[in-house]
């Protein structure tokens, strides 16, 4: 893949770029684009000069014109964004003081592309100015642009993996922030930092997401159960996650049990079925209507993959109270 060959960075950076590709922020170039990138570089010298001068107006204008030219040439705008990120990083690598004013201005521009560039650069700024980088990342986690919010979540996941001791305390504050987007960023960051190579972090990462078990916001509901706990923590830390789930399911909260029920709709629930089956058995008899709705959804998901499992032969849903 072209961008993997292009980026000979640290493991954490490669993980970040892969995540950004997954969310269609940074593309894998087609052979045609890869072959013509070197030919269409007339804008790069001007762009480098604008970076050295910290001219945000120059950076944005040159980049905007380059992206328009790329579209006219039948290529994607992301190809130019990709190249621009490399150029900025190259210019700032020996002069990190350029990053601070540059990221400040880019982050404050109400332009999607400018904010995307700012997020990426903040990962490089963090070791030099952590307080400033954190403030800007928190600002961008609440951006009006969805792509910027996604990018910020993955950048924060990279920072949590790379600077766990210093970045973790910040995310414990974000978890209880009034903004659901900031809470979601902390949640996704925890999932991305959960890796097989760092089992010692399992309990701390589970502690980090625990307050969100009571969160009713749709931004959290859509992510916590299946995506984060199921396909994230249960996959990477199966035994530690099972023990924590056994504790959580006893909490007197239908919201908590709803999140647990949703994890059974994840792909990992099939893989870990024997390990977590007793939890599902408890949820089958739950009297809350919302929990039962999630259970039924999980049944449809699991029954296709575990057709001989008798627990999945569900009849009528339990009638009960709803989560307000």
UniProtKB/TrEMBL annotation:
Record-linked Gene3D superfamilies: Leucine-rich Repeat Variant
Stored Pfam families: DNA_alkylation (PF08713)
Native species: Paenibacillus rigui
Designated name of the protein: HEAT repeat domain-containing protein
Source domain of life: Bacteria
């Amino acid at each position: 893949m072209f961008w993997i060959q292009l980026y000979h960075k640290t493991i954490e950076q490669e993980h970040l770029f892969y995540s950004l590709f997954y969310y269609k922020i940074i593309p894998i170039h087609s052979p045609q684009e890869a072959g013509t990138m070197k030919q269409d570089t007339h804008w790069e010298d001007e762009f480098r000069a604008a970076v050295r001068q910290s001219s945000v107006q120059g950076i944005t204008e040159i980049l905007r014109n380059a992206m328009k030219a790329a579209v006219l040439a039948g290529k994607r705008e992301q190809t130019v964004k990709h190249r621009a990120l490399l150029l900025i990083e190259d210019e700032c690598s020996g002069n990190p003081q350029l990053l601070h004013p540059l990221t400040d201005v880019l982050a404050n521009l109400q332009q999607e592309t400018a904010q995307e560039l700012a997020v990426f650069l903040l990962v490089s700024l963090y070791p030099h100015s952590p307080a400033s980088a954190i403030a800007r990342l928190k600002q961008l986690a609440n951006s009006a642009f969805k792509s910027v919010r996604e990018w910020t979540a993955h950048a924060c996941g990279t920072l949590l993996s790379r600077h766990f001791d210093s970045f973790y305390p910040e995310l414990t504050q974000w978890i209880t922030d009034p903004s659901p987007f900031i809470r979601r960023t902390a949640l996704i960051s925890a999932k991305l930092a959960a890796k097989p190579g760092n089992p010692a972090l399992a309990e701390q990462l589970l502690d980090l997401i625990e307050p969100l078990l009571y969160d009713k916001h749709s931004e959290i509901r859509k992510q916590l159960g299946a995506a984060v706990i199921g396909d994230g923590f249960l996959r990477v830390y199966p035994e530690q996650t099972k023990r924590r789930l056994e504790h959580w399911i006893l909490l007197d909260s239908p919201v908590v049990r709803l999140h647990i029920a949703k994890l059974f709709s994840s792909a990992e629930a099939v893989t870990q079925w024997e390990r977590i089956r007793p939890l599902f058995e408890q949820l089958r008899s739950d009297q809350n209507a919302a929990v039962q709705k999630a259970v039924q959804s999980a049944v449809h998901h699991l029954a296709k993959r575990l057709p001989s499992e008798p627990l999945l032969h569900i009849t009528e849903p339990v009638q009960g109270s709803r989560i307000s």
